[in-house]
User: Fold these one by one.
Assistant:
Number 1:
Amino acid sequence: MNEIMELKTELKKLAEDASLALKEAKGREGLENLRIAYLGRKGALTRILGKMKNLSLEEKKTVGKQANELKKQLGESFKEKLLQCKEKKVTEKIDITLPGIKPKLGHLHPITLISNEMKEIFKGLGFDFVTGPEIENEYYNFEALNFPEEHPARDSFDSFYLAPNILLRSHTSPVQIRTMEKRKPPLRIITTGRCFRRDAIDASHFPAFHQMEGLMVGERISFSHLKGVLTYFLRKIFEPDIEVRFSPSYFPFTEPSAEVSISCPFCSGTGCGSCGHSGWIEILGAGMVNPDVFKKVNYDPEKFTGFAFGMGIERIAMLKYKISDIRDFWENDLRFLEQF
Ligand code: DAH
């Protein structure tokens, strides 16, 4: 009888101690330690129950019942306290008065930015923007542009072939043909886009690059229109006081053809390393549309004349922003991109 009384008192004491300790417990870790101390496998309750073995069956039942109730009650109290702990933690974490973290915003790539700037200038002159495919066939990339088969000029466009007759376009000039097939003159169009050539990579060559192409066709379009439009464009995109020079060149799709240079933006024409000490930097190709090209698209070469031009967009961007390595445009290094 004594033994059972003792056990009951011990259980009662344990309940009182535990609820006191629970009130004072701090933090999740403190709570967990307390739970282990009272209810764990080697905890206080297990120790008391260990003393039951000398009791009669009847006594075991009453003490067992009391112990189970206590266990349940304490267990619930722990859970409740733990929940309070969690809630507290969350409210502590969010301080709505703190300033937020500004999300990093991206922006357009420098090649897109300069393309847009170039397009705007031509838009102001009444040119429409058109596009064409990056995957071409030999007809549009070469033949319709008057590159005869086996013509050595095809070599200079060392191209990426995807299949016989199918290649990644090596310039944007095929868009001239595609547009003239669809539209009747007069027309004024420009296009921009990616081009591909099997060039070895160095500071000024990359196998993928961008070009802008322009074409103007009508009655009585002359070389002076070409000079006027291109000089206007170059003085807009660079400085209003740059010099523009036209010198004879050769392209199969233009006759006559010209190579256009500007006075070196690095030394203003006095001569430096960037311009090979000549004071000039070649910037684009142009010319009067070859009558043979007009015949391919069923334009009457007796009635219509026109001029065309093409230029590398990376080259324009490099000169304008004084970038010395074309690879910078492809590396996506934020330290470079963030400057634009
Ligand atoms: N397609 C030429 C190239 O990639 C550039 C060019 C030159 C385009 C003269 C033209 C042009 O339209 O008239 O080198």
Number 2:
Amino acid sequence: MHLLIPAAGSGKRMGADRNKLLLQVRSKPLIAWTLLAAEAASSISWIGIVSQPQDWDEFKSIIADLKLKKTIELISGGSTRQESVYHGLQALPSNAAQVLIHDGARCLATPDLFNACSEAILYCSGLIAAVPVKDTIKVVDDNGIIKSTPERKQLWAAQTPQGFDVKLLKKCHVEGIRQGWEVTDDAALFEKCGIEVRIVLGEETNLKITTPQDLAIAEFILSYRE
Ligand code: C5P
């Protein structure tokens, strides 16, 4: 299976002046934990890291330190996640029929989750890892007034990995550009194009590291696993 890792973001919401994936978590750069999980997932054979060229020297030295055995390519990132994934899709080897997309910032996803998604995408066109929502979710307007309360049993929190048929995902991205759609995950492009996307049960610990608190939680979870 081919895996694309969008890793071209900044450290803005983290309050950092650099790519948050290069910050240290438990004595390793955050992205190193993501890469170690992908390396340990037997289903993954090729990894494309989509990142800003200014970070490539650091990424190369992280890859060398980890002594990763899988084929790894660095691909130039875009100004949004959506654009970065689009760049990644153009760089996929021509024999890639399916692809997994996994945010570099989700450094706690396990090899088992990668393998489950790799297996499941052989039997459908699109899927995402997701977990049932525990909180009651409110839809709120710009004035802070609640507009509605969606039924909780129908709500799932989207994670990555997300898996797709490559040809379909490329088409959906092109349609997204044509229509000016702005989305925060790839499944949303499939949905907007009217293509079915399935759920694979994700992991409660598969957090997207966004804030300094998330970094502290990741430290704790990684130390608990060791
Ligand atoms: O900012 P956020 O954590 O929501 O981004 C999700 C993922 O998308 C991160 O792994 C980040 O590095 C990546 N990203 C990207 N290109 C961008 C912005 C974000 O690859 N321009």
